[in-house]
Design brief:
Helix content is 50%, strand content 13%. The model is unreliable at 1-20 and 38-48 (pLDDT under 50). The protein is globular. It has helices at 2-18, 22-54, 76-85, 114-124, 134-139, 141-149, 169-187, 203-211, 234-243, 258-273, and strands at residues 61-62, 90-91, 100-107, 129-132, 153-156, 193-194, 200-201, 215-217, 249-254, 277-278. Strands 3, 4, 5, 9 and 10 form a five-stranded parallel beta sheet that branches. A three-stranded parallel beta sheet has the order 2-8-6. The protein has a two-stranded antiparallel ribbon with strand order 1-7. It contains ten helices and ten strands. The chain is an alpha/beta fold. The protein folds into two domains: 2-54; 61-278, Glycoside hydrolase/deacetylase (TIM Barrel, Alpha-Beta Barrel).
């Protein structure tokens, strides 16, 4: 139906231009033909993408990096994810990034620690990626503005935090694009990274994410830091973070954790002493 309407619209344009005589009419006709060509190519591309996505597996997968590691201390679950889903612009760790760690924080709700985390990152001159959901952005505009102003990356964690592979095509696209548009309009910032809620995905949802112009960024290290009433001792948490270090590591942390806020500076210092840098 959309294709038919587009075609009819182009026919109408040509008909109106045909009533204009002389060189002006010829000029308008050429512009209309150029526009029609571009529109036609866009329609064909959309058909191709839609057809390809419809063939993808919709089986829901719950991601976890696992405990098995290779000889470089990289979780096999993360390297396998890269190998299997890299063609969807999706990754769980950064390949060929020697002695580099990427800090990412999932921002589901504000628990009073994000400001301290930002203070530490500024003090240590480290940039991080903050994956936000719609409610967080709308309730914490000042914090989001600070993240942007201080050079951090804002990532898309969906508008409503639904499991992406369980949604319809329209719903899946809207979860990404509605938050994208809101952040763009509110903060003049274009997001390019997506993290699927709960780490749940399918080939199909990764394909939809790619079609929306996003890379999918999962993680190669995470621990149960979001359980706010069962936080580990700071020394234990720090040991977990330090011992998990590997080339191209993507750390998933939650800003609701008091422990994370407390140990972040020490972790950065210790990693730098070991020769790591932060991407």
């Amino acid at each position: 139906m959309k294709i038919l309407k587009s075609a009819l619209a182009l026919v109408g344009i040509f008909a109106m231009i045909g009533s204009v005589g002389g060189s002006k009419g010829e000029e308008l006709m050429q512009k209309a033909k150029d526009t029609a060509q571009v529109a036609g190519e866009a329609i064909v591309k959309r058909i191709s993408l839609a057809g390809e996505i419809d063939t993808l597996d919709r089986t829901k997968v719950g991601y976890g990096q696992g405990v098995i590691k290779d000889d470089k201390n990289r979780p096999v679950g993360a390297t396998d994810f890269n190998a299997r889903y890299g063609n969807f612009d999706a990754f769980a760790l950064k390949e060929n990034e020697e002695k580099t760690i990427y800090l990412t924080f999932d921002q589901g709700y504000e628990n009073g620690y994000t400001e301290k985390i930002l203070d530490t990152l500024r003090e240590k001159n480290v940039k991080a990626t903050f994956f936000v959901v719609g409610d967080y952005v709308k309730r914490n505009e000042e914090l989001v503005r600070r993240m942007i102003d201080e050079g951090h990356t804002i990532g898309n964690h969906s508008m409503s935090h639904y499991s992406m592979p369980t949604l319809s095509l329209a719903q899946c696209q809207d979860e990404i694009t509605s938050l994208h548009d809101y952040v763009r309009d509110k903060f003049q910032y274009e997001m390019t990274l997506f993290r699927p809620p709960m780490g749940e995905f399918s080939e199909w949802s990764l394909g939809v994410t790619k079609e929306c112009g996003y890379e999918t960024m999962l993680w190669s290290f995470a621990y149960y830091d979001w359980v706010t009433d069962d936080q580990p001792e700071p020394s234990q948490a720090l040991d977990k973070l330090v011992s998990a270090a590997h080339d191209g590591a993507v750390y998933l942390l939650h800003s609701v954790s008091s422990t994370n806020a407390q140990i972040l500076g020490d972790f950065i210092d210790e990693m730098r002493e070991k020769g790591y840098k932060f991407g």
